[in-house]
Amino acid sequence: MNRRVPLKADTPAASSAPERPTNVLIVGVGGQGVIMVSKVLASLCQELGYQVKQSEVHGMAKRGGAVFSHVRFGHTVYSPTILEGDADVLVALEWAEGLRWLPYLNQDSGTFIADTQHIVPPFACRNRIRGADSGYSRETVHEVMESVANSFALDALQIATELGVPKAANTVLLGTLSTALEFPVDAWKGVISKFVPPKTVEANTRAFEAGHEWALTFDRETRLKEWQEHTARFSAEIARSDVAVTSTLEITEAWCKGCDICVKFCPERCLAMDERQIAVLTDPDRCTGCRICEWLCPDLAIAVHTPASPVEA
Amino acid sequence: MDAEAKTPPAVETHTMMGNEAIARGAWESGVRVAVAYPGTPSTEILENVAKYPQEDIEAQWATNEKVALDVAIGASFAGERAFVAMKHVGLNVALDSLMSQTYIGVNGGLVLAVCDDPGIHSSQNEQDTRLLAELAMVPVLEPGDAQEALDFIRNAFEISERFDTPVIVRSTTRLSHTRSVVRVSERLPASAIGFRENPGKNVMIPAHARARHPLLLERKTALLEYCAGSPLNHWEEGTADYGIITAGISYSYVKEVAPEAHVLKLGITWPVGSEKLRAFCASVKRILVVEELEPVIEQAVRDLGFEVEGKSLFSRVGEFSPRSVRDGLVKAGLLAAQSVSGGMATKPLIRPPVLCSGCPHTSSYMALRAVDARVCGDIGCYTLAVVEPLKAIDVCVAMGSSIGMAVGMSKAGTEKKPIVATIGDSTFLHAGIPPLIDAVYNNADITVMILDNHTTAMTGGQDHAGTGVTLRGEKTARVNFEELVRSIGVQWVRQIDSYNLASMYQTLREAVEYKGVSVLISDRPCVLDPVKIRGEAFLVESESCVACQSCMNLGCPALAWTDEVYDGHHKVGIDPAQCMGCSLCAQICPSNAIQLANLQ
């Protein structure tokens, strides 16, 4: 693992070239605890005598949007934000968020620590075409680990769950992060104990140690192989046989009594009542052939025809 | 920092967000009355002021920014230091009062903290407060980090009282939400000078105002003289032959990427044009201005007769970053281009902010889709219903605009769809009542949905006059929306439970069929603030799920596709960690596949 030389707080400022601050970028989804993780790090750096700036943007944090926090520490820190390509460590609490911020990582020496947890936004489940898959990031752990030299992908939630403290997944990640920055382990534990509820100090200490240990015993070759196997399985799963099939809707007008049930329940909102109070398909392109209208019509006035309904997996 | 900077003797240090430091500055300055209406990125200022003892400082939420400023002006008239905080667009609301108050000046010092939002992280525009300050001829101080945020508030009160003027301290999102170490001091005693009778100064009738206007011009001249000697504008020698004039957070980017440049950091960004600025410009071969948004400093330098480069290198839109400042300097030929190595190319996942799991607004917009309404939206969380899958808002302009726009649409007479204005509780109190009176008075055929979630949710859950709780958490009078609306003269008013989907659909249908103004109050507390409201989680019985995607139309973040497929479509699963138990998906499911988890 590529370790940075730790900065010394007592280095005189103006002598020779000023030392470059260390940049840690922490990213995730609103509600995951990105700000909490970055506060722990910032607080630790401050205790150890560094100048620290920590910058984030609030407002959308609770609403499932992307959240990020820049932590910069060193002898003198000017900008609160990190230059693209200049992050020494990128910590991702969620997989796709880590990928989003990869361009910020120093490509030569940067360390990427990512939780493999997927949080799939509703927006990624919008393609209603038969056979369509979710719009979640396609890059596999194996691909990313191959491409980014210092990359550590772990299932922090699983590690924490195995310890019986699923809520301490972020602390596991802090344990992993602690191996990328040369701060005393006890200092980390001390700061964490101040940030977590008193009753959970012991559990969080164990979670921290687990994450720390995981990184120290990390064997890149073995992990790569494991993820490669995982990728192979995953690809088999997503390569389902379904192909796009167009369906047609047949409405028997004579049987329609204008009850409006199909219009109300159509998930794609592509049915309407015409001026005669008879159901019509107003937007055939939106119809996915889900058959809700067919099933719910009390008068059996609607039939959905699919040329070759795919056989269920 | 300048050795001569007016930093009071330090007693201790704290790590503070920019907004916390501003609050501390207000308290240290001996402010007696502090007021605000919440708005990102300024909200935390008053929340932090409220952490100081009430014996020291009155801290309260106002109904809107104009009321906030008026309250502060009143306190200033009464002889105490007064402080008001708002976001940039809030100043538009308060501007009416500011434009006259600037003629009057102050008795107790008066400072406005206004937070701009370059990059539009959480706003409807990115206007530059310095232009409004110029219009009002009010000095602007721009801190560049949390320490300056505190110090500049203290400086602002001194300037306010010395030059008899309100003063704006301008922050930006980045400064407001960056934490760094701050040296703090003790609180100054409150001034207690009392009211000073002086109608010629305090009452703006035409004759008085005419006499006051020339004093504004004199004030500007005096301020420019002050700027020339003020340590707030400080000059840092570099080794290069070019000079950069900058302000606020941009200073930190300049120091980051161009440590060799001569730098003039302006702490006062209106007025600009002092002798110090002239001397700086004359001392360097090439002058660059790095300022976010409008070219205020750049124009002032040009007005002094110097050749200057600013917006030709650094964008007039959006937020700066170290990268964009470096790119500008590269474009100017002052820095060598750095190739950022490519690394792995990934396509970023689209993850827009969405209405939360359990959000009571969701059902309102589902129903609006069902009646196929033309929807005039407003400012709040519910504006998020503009994106797929709810996609139920047609227009949104500014705080309280929804109802007035609906009146106009109905009067235009072209719209075949029912016209509905949707407005949140806090926004309704802020600026929705006058247009509702207007709708009744002018007999418009519209429906108004008041989305009452008992809090100011978008900004993180602040109280308001409709919650019956003050900023300091004390119980107070509570506005009853139904009574209020009836007293205005609305005949058709219904209050319904936002979680009752069938009733929501039915009642909305009746409301839009009513000829005239109908008001529907959709009532349910926000599930996150002020307390987290979590019911029993639901789950999807996978064998019953027909993958119809009806529930996915809610846009609930707890719902996502599973790997199981039915007839070519993904079945849906519920993340138990995210489910708040609102039951909307269970109410919608045509195959009854969604059930309470603990019944299994």
Describe the 3D structure.
The complex is a heterodimer of chains A (about 325) and B (about 600). Chain A is of the alpha/beta class and about 325 residues long. Chain A has two domains: about 20-240, 3-Layer(aba) Sandwich (Pyruvate-ferredoxin Oxidoreductase, domain 3), CATH 3.40.920; about 250-305, Alpha-Beta Plaits. Chain A has helices at about 35-45, 95-100, 140-145, 155-160, 170-175, 185-195, 200-215, 220-240, 260-265, 290-295; strands at about 20-30, 50-55, 65-75, 90, 110-115, 150-155, 250, 270-275, 280, 300-305. Chain A has a six-stranded mixed β-sheet with strand order 2-3-1-4-5-6, with helices on both faces. Chain A has a two-stranded antiparallel ribbon with strand order 7-10. In chain A, strand 8 and strand 9 form a beta hairpin. In chain A, helix 1 (about 35-45) crosses helix 6, helix 5 crosses helix 7 and helix 6 (about 185-195) runs antiparallel to helix 7. The model of chain A is unreliable at about 1-15 (pLDDT under 50). Chain B has four domains: about 10-230, Thiamin diphosphate (ThDP)-binding fold, Pyr/PP domains (Rossmann fold), CATH 3.40.50.970; about 235-330, Rossmann fold, CATH 3.40.50.920; about 360-525, 3-Layer(aba) Sandwich (Rossmann fold); about 540-600, Alpha-Beta Plaits, CATH 3.30.70.20. Chain B contains 19 helices and 22 strands. A seven-stranded mixed β-sheet of chain B has the order 3-2-4-5-7-6-12, sandwiched between helices. A five-stranded parallel β-sheet of chain B has the order 14-15-16-18-17, with helices on both faces. In chain B, strands 9-11-10-13 form a four-stranded mixed β-sheet, sandwiched between helices. In chain B, helix 4 packs across helix 9 (about 205-230) and helix 10 (about 250-255) packs across helix 13 (about 320-330). Classes of the chains: A alpha/beta (about 325), B alpha/beta (about 600). The interface between A and B is large, with 81 and 76 residues.
